[in-house]
Amino acid sequence: MSHYFIGIKVNAEISEKLMDWQSILRGTMNYKDWTAKEDLHITLKFLGSCSDETVERYVHRLRNESWPSAYPLTVGPAGGFGDQERPRVFHAGVQRVPSLMETKEKVDGIGEELGFQKEKRKFNPHITLAKKQAEGVSPLIDASKDSVLLETYEMVVNEFSFFRIHPGNHPKYETVATIKGGQKI
Predict the structure, then answer these.
(1) Is 91 one of the annotated active-site residues of the chain?
(2) pTM exceeding the 0.85 threshold for the entire prediction
(3) Count of domains in the chain?
(4) Catalytic residues (predicted)?
(5) Nearest to 151, CA basis, from 17, 42, 26
(6) 64 falls within a domain
């Protein structure tokens, strides 16, 4: 069985800017896992291993719900999880707006009905740029040198997707289904 997650794909314009952030980060830190440009996303729910039948049921349920219409989302500034000097995950922050939170809650609710556990940690929306830190010091320690890492960008969200994970591939995430906002299919 394959592993899956539900998330919001980052648009091409923001992806380019985040690749610039990765370039800055590569100058000061060495991570084991760098997110490919095509794989940049905001995770709504990690599902883990699922059967094809479970995936079909989940997608069917998602497509039969009403979702928020297109809404703006602020991406940035850069941040990290863990030690400030050597964060285990380096990411772009994502603003917690009501439409994003509504989507997250509905995705979780459907998941619970289908037997998936609700995440115990508070939802902290972000876009992972690198993880599994090996060595180096975060450029955020002296962000004045790389102020681009403090910038924010606007992106419009009008859909989210169900992804299959292919760990050995590049890119590693395959879109299985896309759910449009503001409508039932």
Answers:
(1) no
(2) yes
(3) 1
(4) 41 (proton donor), 126 (proton acceptor)
(5) 17
(6) yes
Q: What's the CATH code of the domain at 154?
A: 3.90.1140.10
Look at residues 141, 137, 159, 162 and name the one whose alpha carbon lies nearest to residue 150. 141
Question: In this structure, is residue 122 part of a structural domain?
Answer: yes
Question: Which residues have a Cβ under 8 Å from the Cβ of 112 and sit 6 or more positions away?
Answer: 118
Between the CA of residue 140 and those of 23, 90, 158, what are the distances in Å? 14, 10, 31
Q: How far apart are CA 182 and CA 79, in angstroms?
A: 31
106 occurs within a structural domain? yes
Specify the residue for token string 């591939």. Answer: 169
Q: In which domain, by residue range, is 167 found?
A: 2-180
Q: Which of 3, 41, 91, 166 is catalytic?
A: 41
45-70: pLDDT as tens digits: 999 999 999 999 999 999 999 999 99
- Average pLDDT over the chain, rounded to an integer: 93
Say how far residue 151 (Cα) sits from the centre of its chain.
18
Residue 41 falls in the annotated catalytic set: yes
Active-site annotation holder among 60, 91, 126, 170: 126
Q: Token pair for residue 124?
A: 């902290």
Tokens at 141, concatenated? 């320690």
Residue 185 within a domain: no
- Distance between CA atoms of 41 and 129, rounded to whole angstroms? 10
